[in-house]
Design a protein that fits this description.
Blueprint: H1 2-38, H2 63-81, H3 91-100, H4 112-125, E1 129-131, E2 142-146, H5 154-166, E3 173-177, H6 187-193, E4 197-198, H7 201-209, E5 213-216, H8 220-224, H9 241-249, E6 253-259, E7 267-270, H10 272-277, E8 284-286, E9 305-308, H11 325-349
Parallel strand pairs: 1-9, 2-5, 2-6, 3-4, 3-5
Antiparallel strand pairs: 6-9, 7-8
Length: 356
């Protein structure tokens, strides 16, 4: 009713008036507490009825503190600039790199720090012995087909290092990588910076049309996740993607075998349920990872062997054969058997996992 509304309004007005009177009585105390808390001085033009939110006054840094802060920022920026694919410390250098990148994001110059690091791994850490280098043409399009292992793509890095540092023509290798490597911390930036390309028929054809050297791992994720007990037993080579690419682009194929990469991580099992949560196709459990944290990614110093086989040509086949899955699967199995025989030959040569 109207009477009840008037009564409720009167009660509200009374409570508001009581609250305002209480605030007015305690105002000096509240201002002193705020001044002590924020180290503020009351503005000269503030009236008794003004209620302003106090603003913290920042104390100016002395010269020593300012220099220390700048030095820490400089060290952090320089450290981050060492990561391949990250922005360089010098922004003029960044602009220059962007102007010279190719369509896949690779700079024409190899980072000297990265080159020195991979050369150290190749010559001193894994002591890689490479044979059959003469089977890699000095120029022109070529497909390298290799076995895959090691949980992380160190085998591709060592193949690329061998051909860039020790091949007479210093050929640069463009490896086809799986999408999930880009989800690793700095993975996408690192892989792009070192010239690796997302695995697809379209990307491979574009590189071959540019007469580049392309490395393919037909085993894919299955090869990296086959476990320690199944090491050096090649998995199925997919549906013949490498064969189809070679026939379609009229490109010679060089089979390649890598021994030593299977033992750099002693994988005991897989927690694939955790891998799905992290967006990874598999989550390895090794002797060192994840128990040692980031240190678990450090590979063991095994002895490596890389062998490039004789060139295989498919010039006698035209593109009409690509519709015949029987022929493509037969050629695919023959290529897999050739690489398996090469791997077995290297294993017979090896006497020790760590000393060769």
């Amino acid at each position: 009713t109207d009477a009840e509304d008037e009564k409720a309004t009167a009660q509200i007005e009374k409570r508001v008036k009581t609250r305002l009177e209480s605030l007015e009585r305690h105002k000096p105390t509240r201002q002193r507490k705020s001044a002590r808390r924020f180290a503020l001085s009351e503005p000269e033009d503030m009236d008794d009825g003004d209620y302003e939110v106090p603003v913290r006054k920042l104390r100016p840094l002395d010269s020593k503190a300012l220099k220390a802060r700048k030095r820490k920022a400089s060290i952090l920026e320089r450290a981050l600039s060492l990561i391949p694919g990250s922005k360089p410390y010098d922004y003029e250098e960044l602009i220059d790199k962007l102007e010279r990148m190719d369509e896949f994001g690779k700079s024409p110059d190899v980072d000297p720090k990265l080159e020195a690091f991979l050369t150290f791994l190749y010559k001193h850490y894994w002591r890689v012995e490479t044979t059959g280098m003469e089977n890699i043409p000095k120029k022109g399009r070529t497909i390298i087909v290799s076995n895959h292992s090691g949980s992380l793509p160190w085998d591709g890095a060592m193949i690329g290092t061998a051909l860039y540092k020790f091949h007479p023509a210093r050929r640069y290798t463009r490896c086809m990588i799986e999408d999930w490597f880009g989800r690793l911390p700095f993975g996408s930036e690192f892989m792009t910076a070192v010239g690796q390309v997302r695995a697809s028929q379209e990307n491979a054809e574009r590189l071959l049309k540019q007469e580049q050297l392309v490395c393919i791992f037909p085993e894919g994720i299955k090869g990296m996740a086959k476990g320690f007990k199944n090491r050096y037993n090649l998995m199925r080579f997919g549906r013949g993607g490498a064969i189809r690419l070679a026939i379609r682009t009229r490109t010679p194929v060089v089979p390649c075998s890598v021994v030593g990469a299977e033992e750099i991580y002693i994988v005991l099992g897989y927690a694939n349920w955790l891998g799905k949560m992290l967006g990874m196709p598999f989550f390895p459990l090794s002797l060192t990872f994840p128990w040692l944290g980031p240190l678990g990614f450090i590979p063991l110093p095994t002895k490596w062997y890389i062998n490039f086989g004789k060139i295989i040509r498919y010039d006698q086949y035209d593109e009409s054969v690509l519709k015949d899955n029987v022929v493509v699967n037969r050629l695919n199995r023959e290529l897999r058997a050739t690489i398996q025989d090469m791997v077995d030959s290297l294993l017979k040569k090896r006497r020790s996992v760590f000393f060769g």
